[in-house]
């Protein structure tokens, strides 16, 4: 309980820094309580997990036995630690080949992380035309928070979504807010 309280502090990455190797070691235990708690603590680190965790966490994305929930927490933690690391973005995008059901979650993560990695931005743009309405919603919301130059590169797609009466209202509204940020074209 004390570790959780510390992990919630705004300086938890610094406070827990000395025991991060032990927390990473707990990820390998066969006790799901210990490994889950360790992963939870690593994901809560503030202001963000240190980039030094990337080499320890990145290989875990290739664990074929990991649940989609665990892969999601690992991905979110990695994106918080290194949002523009091509290896992190690539590994997370590769996950989608085996776990396509994670698409909406990954789009949302990349939006929150404000990643400007070229592959991530291309993925966000491609997600605007995904068959899944949740993925399109997450993509519109993610792009809404991206730099103006990024939004501008998807202006046509966003305008199409904003004007599509068959699209979810939340998706149309997010697309319209993104377009407002870039002004008239």
Give me a quick take on this structure.
Helix content is 66%, strand content 0%.
Q: Taking Cα atoms only, what radius of gyration do you get, to the nearest Å?
A: 18 Å
Q: Which percent range describes the beta-strand content?
A: under 5%
- The count of domains is 2
Instruction: Give the helix proportion (percent range).
Output: 55-70%
> What's the CATH class label of the largest domain?
Mainly Alpha
Summarize model confidence as the mean pLDDT.
93
| Helix and strand sequence | HHHHHHHHHHHHH
CATH architecture of the largest domain: Alpha Horseshoe
| CATH topology category name of the largest domain | Leucine-rich Repeat Variant
Structural class based on helices, strands and sheet pairing:
mainly alpha
How many strands? 0
The backbone outline, from C-alpha atoms, is elongated
| Span of the ends, CA to CA | 53 Å
Task: Walk me through the structure.
The structure is a single chain. The chain has 13 helices and no strands. With 185 residues, it is mostly helical. It folds into two domains: 1-47, no CATH class; 54-182, Leucine-rich Repeat Variant, CATH 1.25.10.10. α6 (68-81) packs antiparallel against α7, α6 (68-81) packs parallel to α8 and α8 (103-113) runs parallel beside α10. The chain is elongated and about 50 Å long. The mean pLDDT is 93.
């Amino acid at each position: 309980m004390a570790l959780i309280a510390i992990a919630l502090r705004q300086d938890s990455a610094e406070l827990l820094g000395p025991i991060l190797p032990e927390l990473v070691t707990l990820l390998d235990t066969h006790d799901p309580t210990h490994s889950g708690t360790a992963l939870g603590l690593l994901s809560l680190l503030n202001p963000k997990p240190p980039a030094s965790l990337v080499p320890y966490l990145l290989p875990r994305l290739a664990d074929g036995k990991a649940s989609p929930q665990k892969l999601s927490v690992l991905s979110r933690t990695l994106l918080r630690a290194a949002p523009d690391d091509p290896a992190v973005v690539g590994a997370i995008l590769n996950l989608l080949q085996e776990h396509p059901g994670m698409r909406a979650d990954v789009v949302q993560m990349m939006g929150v992380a404000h990643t400007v990695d070229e592959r991530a931005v291309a993925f966000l743009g491609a997600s605007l035309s995904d068959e899944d309405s949740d993925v399109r919603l997450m993509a519109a919301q993610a792009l809404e928070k991206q730099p103006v130059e990024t939004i501008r590169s998807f202006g046509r797609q966003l305008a199409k979504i904003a004007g599509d009466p068959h699209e979810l209202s939340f998706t149309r509204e997010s697309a319209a807010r993104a377009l407002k940020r870039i002004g008239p074209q």
